[in-house]
Amino acid sequence: MPRELPGLYWDEKKQRYFPLALSRRPQVVGPSTLHPPTKPQTAPQESHNLKRQRNRSLLRAREDARFSFRTSHKSKLIQCVSDSPIPEMTTVREFHHCGAQSDIAVTYNDNVHSFAGDTGGWFYSSVIGRDESVTGYHTSYGWRPEFSKHLAISSICTSGSRCIATSFGPESRILHFPLDLDSEDIRVTRVNNRSVRDVWTADLQGTRLVLGTNNQAVVVDDAADRATVCFMKTGSDVFTIAQDNNIIYTGSRAGIVQRFDSRITSTKGDRILSDPSTTQNNSVTNLKIFYDWQLLTSNIDGSLAMFDLRFPNNRTPIMSFTGNINTYTTKTPIAVDPHEQFLFAAGQDRRIRLWSLRTGGPPLVSPAGVFQRPV
Q1: 27, 26, 8, 33: which is closest to 18 by C-alpha?
Q2: pLDDT of 168-202, one tens digit each?
Q3: Which of 21, 124, 128, 250 has its CA at a distance of 20 to 30 angstroms from the CA of residue 179?
């Protein structure tokens, strides 16, 4: 009988010692492991973790099968997935792994659908029925882990019955999550171009998806079918995007707002609203269009301003909103109420402030509380 050593366990089959941490890792499903060995009895919490890891392995196998060019390899992966169907994931009580990176909430078929992604690559969802109270619900509880992309979720956007989540890193993975899971499956696609990496943001309008990446905006005419892809050069990383029918606005790390027309073949945009002497190193972090002709911008220094799109060469805003605090965070969100009367902005100081979109100026009320984590 082998000696018992602290922190190690003896593998009878391989006739060697291994760290105890490795004994808890689940068997990864891959091309060479079509029938994983029988798992030993585990505690309930460990069993839940093993099931979650197994689901991730099966989803990864399904994705690899879709992009594999070797027929034999692809057939093995497909057989592996078909033999081991992915079960429905159980409801979790709180976010796993890392902090939330992106989130969004929309109404579809009288239900409130909420989505969130974290820096660990997990994509979560939550659905509130028409008879449930929404107040106080959007906390870290009641969310379901739907998918893991293994790369930080950089942005989440929705349009109609589709939700899109992008990842940040060398591979431009795009998660397609249908709001109606009965009619369509979750799937992952990629932009097959090596120049597309580090997706900072995305915006979905109808079927057209625009990605904000390194030094360019990438336009996918039909996100569902990965149709024609167009590259719009910006000369700087694109942090935010706004679409208005055929017109696309981009805000970049360099503090520049550019306007592109998707109907023409030229990839060169028009620089608008910005003054080169004041925008340098003041990155544009948010763009929102109101009343068809007003563009709301936020910058990394915390400034918020409204511009008139009918006069794109006018560098003076028609309205400014003071009192917001930020110095370096690119993910400070802004939001507007459904009637477009009030502006909400999250500051780097973990406070949410409220302004009137009709008067501008300082916040209407002083924030009374501070969130425990960045918002």
Answers
A1: 8
A2: 888 778 999 998 877 788 888 888 777 788 899 99
A3: 250
